[in-house]
Amino acid sequence: MELIIFRGVRNIVDIAPPSDVCLRNNRPDVCAPYLLGVLIFMFLLVFLLPAASVASDDENCLMCHKMPGLGRYAKGENQNAVKRILYVNEELFKASYHGRLRCKSCHQGVDEIPHTDAEKVDCASDCHIQDPSSNSEFSHRAIVHDLSMSAHGAKQVKNGQVEDLPNCKYCHSNKPYQRSDTDHQESMKFLNICLQCHESKEWAERFFKHINYRASTRRSSKQVVELCGQCHADRVMMDNHDLDVVVGFNDTFHGKAIRYGDAEVANCLNCHAPYQSGFSPHSILSQRQSTSPVSNENKIETCRQSGCHTEAKEEFATSGKIHPSSFTTVQMMSRNTLNRPGEADPDSEFQEWVLHMISLFYKTLIIVVVGGLALHQILDLLAIRRERKLREG
Amino acid sequence: MNTNDMSEKRKFVRLTKSQRIQHAILFTSTGLLILTGFMLQGEQWVIEMFGSAGDTIFWWRSLIHRIAGVAVTIICLYHILYVTFTKEGRSWLKDMFPRWRDLIDVFQNVGYMLGLRKARPKMDRFTYLEKLEYFSVWFGMFIVITTGIMMWTEYLWPKFYLDVADAFHLGEATLAALAIIVGHIFAVHYNPHVYPMNRAFIDGYIKEDMMKEEHPLWYERETAKNEQ
């Protein structure tokens, strides 16, 4: 009986909100009554279904939030409606980083229905799970503090455009760790070693995953470059914050290797937050700060980190730029990048001029030499044809 | 065509065995260098074609580029020894050396091709175009080998020097690749006398009629030598 009702609800929910139509026409006013009806129906459903059969979460949030199609339109930018999906897939949630947490650990408030008292999720709050290392409540407060002190923190923004800054979710989309199935199977074999001493498989698997996930990189180099580039390659945004646009990186050797999928070559984080030297992506600093791994004082040690240019001489890091590179070889291919206007030092101006001249020299030479050779070849072929005609005629 | 013609005609040695081997090593390694080198200049969609194999392909690309680079360096050093110490090599270099006569040849030949002159200038063992190509290889190899070694030993140099080396390496490589296609493959192989291929780089011979036409001075010298 329950199952039939449930299936019926699912069907209604699946076909009910003409959400695509609403979105396409951008007419939430048309769809809202319709959606509201669905919501009310689902609300009534709470009384129809015994709680125990719905979810095992003791807060009983999934009673409603397990319904696919549960959602609403919220006011977004420029008065446009934004679709908020409030459906939670229990299976996916349990497998995620926060799968062991109670909903209210993050979603504080929410004591009333509808949740008018919900507070904004704050990653720095205590989450009522005990940190076994200190026996106190766990919190991301320290990391949030690091981020606020870093170049990405609100304190560093001079012009007050804090909305451009990346928040936790910007990088941590809390997706299950991505990697190939074969890798996953291989690493899960290792779990057997844990299970030789630890009896509870569930417990062992959780800890194994905890360590395993954190020991591997979350994003490929290509994804890191894309992530950072979403802001740092945006000329308008960088101009607003008085920063250099990073456009030349993909044309450097590091960038080219990454485009091919090389995992060993340096991506953004390997220089700006080299974990080998104890830096973290949460505390990235401006290169103008002396404690930054890319400051003039520390640059060379960053280049020298193990696996990279370990034998680099002091001069290696003294001149030239890694990026943005308005010059380098890419000019041959007619790509160019620009420096921030009004802040070029004479050294790098001279260097850019030299590199520009080399490329200009070769462009001219190629046109003259190859063009000349081609012309010579055509004239020669015409002359030979003339000779043949003379001989035959 | 008439096969009897072939047997009746005399053949002269254009390239010796050593020269043919040097040429073979040079064009194999240069071909590989151009291919693996320009893989770095590929647009995003080209790289995406490799898909998940990109990483492996990139690894092989880098390895092959270095091996071929070493091969080309060795063959260039060998060639220097060859033109200095062997009789064959010294005669090669002597005949290859630019003379005033070559400049006159340029004007007279261009004049002929434009129809301003009745006959082609009489050219020797190596025409002005062949001399230009040969010394372009010297010049170009000097640049790509020097800058290539610099980039291979990147830890010894300031980044700016490496940028300069990179710019020269790419510039010279682009020039060389295009000059090889237009100036060498077209001029030497896409030539009505020998089309579709000048076989001299395989068997080393040049046919008498072609030699008479393209290198008359050399032909006269060789036949005079034979008659003595």
Element order, helices and strands of chain A?
HHHHEEHHEEHHHHHHHHHH
Extract low-pLDDT stretches of chain A: 1-24, 48-55, 325-343
Pair of chains with the largest interface and how many residues each contributes: A-B, 52 and 45 residues
What's the main sheet of chain A like? 2 strands, antiparallel
Instruction: Please state the structural category of chain A.
Output: mainly alpha
Task: Write down the overall geometry of chain B.
Answer: elongated
Rough shape of chain A? elongated
Total domain modules of chain A: 3
Report the span from N to C terminus of chain A.
Answer: 102 Å
Quaternary assembly: heterodimer
Tell me how many strands of chain A there are.
4
Percent in strands of chain A = under 5%
Distance between the termini of chain B: 34 Å
Task: State the total count of DSSP E strands of chain B.
Answer: 2
Q: Unreliable runs of chain B, pLDDT <50, ≥5 residues? A: 1-7
- Put simply, the count of helices of chain B is 11
Helix content, binned percent of chain B = over 70%
Largest beta-sheet characterization of chain B: 2 strands, antiparallel
Report on this model:
The complex is a heterodimer of chains A (393) and B (228). With 393 residues, chain A is mainly alpha-helical. Helices cover 46% and strands 5% of the residues of chain A. Chain A folds into three domains: 96 residues, no CATH class; 147 residues, no CATH class; 48 residues. In chain A, helix 9 crosses helix 10. Chain B is an all-alpha fold and 228 residues long. Chain B has one domain: Fumarate Reductase Cytochrome B subunit. In chain B, 75% of the residues lie in helices and 3% in strands. Chain B has a two-stranded antiparallel sheet with strand order 1-2. The chains are: A mainly alpha (393), B mainly alpha (228). At the A-B interface, helix 13 and helix 16 of A face helix 3, helix 4, helix 6 and helix 8 of B.
